Structures are given as structure tokens and as C-alpha cells.
Amino acid sequence: MPRSSELRILADENINADVVRPLKKTVGDIAYAKKGLKNGELFKLLVESSRILVTHDGDFADQNKYPAHKTQGVVLIKIDPALDETILKALTGLFHKLPLEDFENKLVVLDVDGFTVE
Fold first, then answer.
1. Which helix (H) or strand (E) holds 92?
2. How many CB atoms neighbour CB 83 within 10 A?
3. Are 48 and 70 in contact (CB under 8 A)?
4. C-alpha to C-alpha distances, 52 to 3, 40, 61, 81, 107, nearest whole angstrom
5. Phi, psi of 55 (to 5 degrees)
6. 91: helix, coil or strand?
7. Under 8 Å between Cβ of 118 and 109
8. What whole-number distance in Å separates Cα of residue 36 and Cα of residue 91?
9. What CA–CA distance (Å, rounded) separates 54 from 90?
10. Has domain 8-117 been given CATH number 3.40.50?
11. Which of 73, 78, 86, 96 is most buried, judging by how many CB atoms fall within 10 Å of its CB?
12. pLDDT confidence of 55, banded at 50, 70, 90?
């Protein structure tokens, strides 16, 4: 289980504050991406900040355009309906189950049934 001091998260602007606030209590180091950043700018920030991106934006599944292998990791949330409580539970479970090194350079797709690491 990763220690909260090791996890450094970058929450995309599309992640609700009602998910981020309680997640900060268990994960700790979570930064919000500035509103209005284009995906290319967000990806550059992600690479430079050495954080794990948490996003709903399916564009980040495009490994040709946004290669996860250049990052600390990308968590793509594919939970529908996107209820805050369901997302928070899934993210908390993910961050407690998956060792930090398993995020590195990977795309992690999170859904209601669990997650896959690509």
C-alpha cells in the first residue's frame, strides 16, 4: 500500500472538489490543475510536476498524443454515472490497493468494477 506521503496527485479541473477534499485527508498531496488549461499544457505540467493525473478526460487514453510512459501515471475515471461518492470510493480503493510503482509510466483505467493497468 502506498504511503500518503509518496502519492503526489494532480487533479484535472473536471474532478469535483467534493471528491478532492476528502481524498486529501487520505492521500495528502493533491494539487488542482489550473482551470482552462488545454490538454497539451496539462500534459506538460503533468510531466514537469512528477504527479499522477486523475481525470475524466478520455483524451488522455490516447497514448500517441499523451504517452503515460513519460509521466508518473494517469488515472482515467470511466465511472458512469459519475457520482462523487462512487468516484471517491473507487479512487480511495485504488490508491490503497495499487503500489506507487505500479502507477509509474502507466495508464490506469478506473471503473465501478475495479481498474486495469495499461
1. helix 84-97
2. 13
3. no
4. 14, 16, 14, 23, 10
5. -150, 160
6. helix
7. yes
8. 24
9. 12
10. yes
11. 73
12. very high
Question: What's the pTM?
Answer: 0.92
How far apart CA 61 and CA 83 sit, in angstroms, is: 21
Q: Examine the pLDDT at 2 and tell me if it is beyond 80.
A: no
> How far is residue 113 from each of residues 16, 52, 56, 94, 109, measured CA to CA in Å?
21, 21, 16, 11, 11
- pLDDT value at residue 25: 87
* Residue 42 CA neighbour count, 13 Å, CB half: 26
For residue 109, the cross-strand partners are 76, 116
- Domain boundary assignment for the chain: 8-117
